[in-house]
């Protein structure tokens, strides 16, 4: 017999404002599968891989929960991602590697890493 706690049904979709420190229209939008796929593609293209603890991974998990709960369809994308896009940039400044990931012009995460491997993350949430 399982000792797991029964899961409560998800009452409303997981929104960007629940996962990231974003504002405006983006904060009230449900995390969508196509947005997550677009962010994953941008991470792959820029970084050569999807970061296991990065925004694409968080978005994929939230979008899957939203889809499983029936709040959104598999091919759903927000107008913000579609119209304003997602970006992943990697720059080097004063011996530090800086990875910035945005959606609709809002920073979801900024990762600062010393070139010797020390990391510091400025997550927006």
Short description:
This protein has 125 residues and is α+β, with helices and mostly antiparallel strands. It has 5 helices and 4 strands.
Notes on the structure:
- Helices cover 34% and strands 24% of the residues.
- It is an alpha+beta fold.
- It has one domain.
- The chain has a four-stranded antiparallel beta sheet with strand order 1-2-3-4.
- Strand 3 and strand 4 form a beta hairpin.
- The radius of gyration is 16 Å and the shape is elongated.
- The termini are far apart.
Keywords:
alpha+beta; 4-stranded antiparallel sheet; elongated; repeat; SMP domain-containing protein; LEA_SMP; LEA_SMP_dom
Q: Per DSSP, what share of the residues sits in E-state strands of 2 or more residues?
A: 15-25%
- The number of distinct helices, counting runs of at least 4 residues, comes to 5
How far is the first residue's CA from the last residue's CA?
A: 37 Å
Q: What class do helices, strands and sheet pairing give?
A: alpha+beta
Order of helices and strands: HHHHHEEEE
Oligomer classification: single chain
Strand order of the largest sheet: 1-2-3-4
Protein name: SMP domain-containing protein
Biased composition (Basic and acidic residues): 42-54
Family: Belongs to the LEA type SMP family.
Region (Disordered): 23-55
């Amino acid at each position: 017999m399982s000792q797991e706690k029964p899961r409560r049904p998800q009452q409303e979709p997981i929104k960007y404002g629940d996962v990231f420190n974003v504002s405006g229209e983006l904060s009230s939008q449900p995390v969508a599968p196509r947005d997550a796929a677009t962010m994953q593609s941008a991470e792959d293209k820029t970084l050569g891989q999807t970061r296991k603890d990065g925004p694409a991974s968080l978005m994929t998990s939230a979008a899957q929960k939203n889809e499983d709960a029936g709040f959104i369809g598999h091919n759903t994308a927000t107008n913000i991602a579609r119209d304003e896009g997602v970006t992943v940039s990697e720059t080097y400044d004063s011996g530090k590697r800086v990875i910035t990931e945005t959606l609709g012009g809002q920073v979801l995460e900024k990762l600062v890493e010393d070139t010797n491997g020390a990391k510091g993350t400025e997550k927006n949430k």
